[in-house]
Write the structure tokens for this entry.
Amino acid sequence: KAGVTQTPRYLIKTRGQQVTLSCSPISGHRSVSWYQQTPGQGLQFLFEYFSETQRNKGNFPGRFSGRQFSNSRSEMNVSTLELGDSALYLCASSPDGNSEKLFFGSGTQLSVL
Amino acid sequence: GESVGLHLPTLSVQEGDNSIINCAYSNSASDYFIWYKQESGKGPQFIIDIRSNMDKRQGQRVTVLLNKTVKHLSLQIAATQPGDSAVYFCAENREGSQGNLIFGKGTKLSVKP
């Protein structure tokens, strides 16, 4: 069974631009969560999608958004990029997202210049 | 505030020795705990989990201990190998969390040959 796949692996953007990251969950998993990882703040929850609906959201500004498609694939978008958005963005999937382990992809390393 | 934290940011052990990584959590409502291993350039990889109705769980070379009285979690790695060198995170999950794992800051384990 293929694991969680994230594309692209690396991205370099400039301030003010917007970016879209993609995630394909493990086959059969319907819950997809997104996390931001930085050296200073560690792993922080962005949001979770299940059956194309955002069920849960962390404490991030509205510039961070996402969506999920009918095949459970998910995208997240960050608009008006800031230097502080430079981070590793991790996607994780699980069967239903409740009280169970999450399976993580290798992440997208975003650098904002 | 509610958080999961780790007692030590770094841990250095000799190859073949046993390693113990500790974690404290603050929310007594947490009912599920997970240990992840993250190697450089990769996403967190599931190691072992434990539910709050248990106090010990064993895997292959790893054991997780849960002490609910003092809200303490530990990961024991037997016969530590160079391939165990990584950052280890504990994470807590609550019923209805919908993809939101709360991660500790991580402990970097270095194994000396």
